[in-house]
Design goal:
With 228 residues, the protein is mainly beta. It has two domains: 116 residues, Lipocalin (Beta Barrel); 100 residues, Beta Barrel (Lipocalin), CATH 2.40.128. It is 14% helix and 58% strand. It has a nine-stranded antiparallel β-sheet, with helices on both faces. The longest helix has 24 residues.
Length: 228
Amino acid sequence: MLVAFALMMGSQANAQSTAEVESYFLGKWNVTVKGTPNGDITIPFRFVKNDGKLKGYFMEPEAKDEKATDTVYVEGTEFKVGFNIAGYDVVVGMTKKDDDNATGSLMGMFDVTAVRVKDAAAGTNGGGASLQDYFLGKWDVTAKGIPNGDVTLPSRFAVVNGALMGYFIEPGSSEEKPMSTVKIEGEKLVIGFTVMSYDITIWLAKKDNDTAAGSLMDMFEVVAVRKK
């Protein structure tokens, strides 16, 4: 019984350690690989955990859009990220140094330093950052009871060059247009755009994992459903 208890406690301690490592690395980081043939290279990364799944995103030098990493996992106390960059499959391993800095290596050959990117408005890993992560991806945003009946706008939210951006498709069109305003205000996502020559503002608040609800111009009910 003592042996079983010891094994159980060891397993719980390891699980707790993994959870702590995951939690520490959630958010945005600037990861610098030092001493490569092309000099020091800094790569923006972003790590989120949705529905219990750890996911990573990064931006290649000179790129404007994020790419998903191939793998993100914890091995012991080391946070590991596998991704393809410049045609090479590489793995970076990092461990916590202090609250906002981590160190490690790329493929065990090049030193790596990582610095947490803080959002001045939302804090390090605060509600604003979490809400932003929640809304990333594609949504069907439906305004109900307007004079022309219910209208659904396919919408997409992404982080581009570190900024939250939104895009939508007008009724009868097949091309995306950028939104004029996309911001987090408290517990709400506020978006603004022009559709059918009208300047529109919509706010949305999380309802559950795949549904958000809000209002158009504080007059009409809006329901947003995540597209999977």
